[in-house]
């Protein structure tokens, strides 16, 4: 299949919307990462998403809507806490899970009785959703297991020839996927950290739990609250290890590991002091800039042929929790205390 490369003109977005209505797959920019969209109410179309990504069929998709009013038909009801979250954070980089209505089929929900809903704030995504006129199921537009795409070029690398069109809307503002919270459990639970932080959510709806798999490896036999947490994720070809400790100790460690193929994944301004090739992925103590650069850094390490990567450790609160959550998966949970 020839994949159409589209821009963001009204004409291009109208065509992209038409393709979605016809049951085709279209990748599009959002403020988090690029999404791979299909008409959420067309199960045949949605099934193609899993095929194009190589995604396990039990890993459900997020349903994207243009307006808050589009949410009610997709869920059983909108409880008070959901309303608070929608009022405060929609449109924005937050996904809320609620018991699903019958409109949502088993392919979208990965067989669960819940649905994940999100209303993106990126103007291109918003206009496309309006023009499509249908809710759009969309996971990240990468091949399953690889880092999520934060630019159209990365979507092309993974999806050209497999989908109908790619809308190029430039770089994604946040660079990590949406925060996911479930309200389908007795205590609201954070399933995936993102740019809307735990602290911001708690300010609206009170205490929330954090699913153990967010910051730690799941125990064998443990059931994932969110199926996506159990799969290998964001993994570059290189073997990544996180080194937890201050920069002085990190530098000392690297000095003793300067073999060919070793790369440093460090913070801005640190690389030149290390004596090995390096990629800097944002400012120290600044989860927002780290989130913005992390996935590009992971893709670039592969392009350079890095074999062994030693990464500086992000913090675990605020937006840094999202960065830590992605990086420990990229590192297959290898963390060394310095
Ligand atoms: P992605 O679309 O690649 O950003 O992945 C969506 C994430 O949301 C995955 O980790 C899914 O497992 C999770 N997710 C989507 N729908 C649900 C749901 N109904 N219940 C729990 N997790 C969900
Ligand atoms: Mg994904």
Structural class: alpha/beta
Percent of sequence in beta strands:
15-25%
**What is the CA-CA span between the terminal residues?**
50 Å
Rg is 20 Å
What does this structure look like?
By secondary structure, the protein is an alpha/beta fold. Helices cover 30% and strands 18% of the residues. It has helices spanning 10-21, 43-53, 80-89, 106-109, 123-132, 152-159, 198-205, 247-255, 287-303, 320-330, and strands spanning 4-6, 26-28, 35-39, 62-64, 94-99, 114-118, 136-137, 165-167, 179-182, 189-192, 209-210, 239-244, 262-266, 278-280, 308-312, 335-337. The strands form two sheets. It has an eleven-stranded mixed β-sheet, with helices on both faces. The chain has a five-stranded parallel β-sheet with strand order 14-13-15-12-16. Strand 9 (179-182) and strand 10 form a beta hairpin. The longest helix has 17 residues, at 287-303. Bound molecules: adenosine monophosphate (AMP) and magnesium ion.
What can be said about this structure in brief?
Helix content is 30%, strand content 18%.
Secondary-structure blueprint:
Blueprint: E1 4-6, H1 10-21, E2 26-28, E3 35-39, H2 43-53, E4 62-64, H3 80-89, E5 94-99, H4 106-109, E6 114-118, H5 123-132, E7 136-137, H6 152-159, E8 165-167, E9 179-182, E10 189-192, H7 198-205, E11 209-210, E12 239-244, H8 247-255, E13 262-266, E14 278-280, H9 287-303, E15 308-312, H10 320-330, E16 335-337
Bound molecules: adenosine monophosphate and magnesium ion.
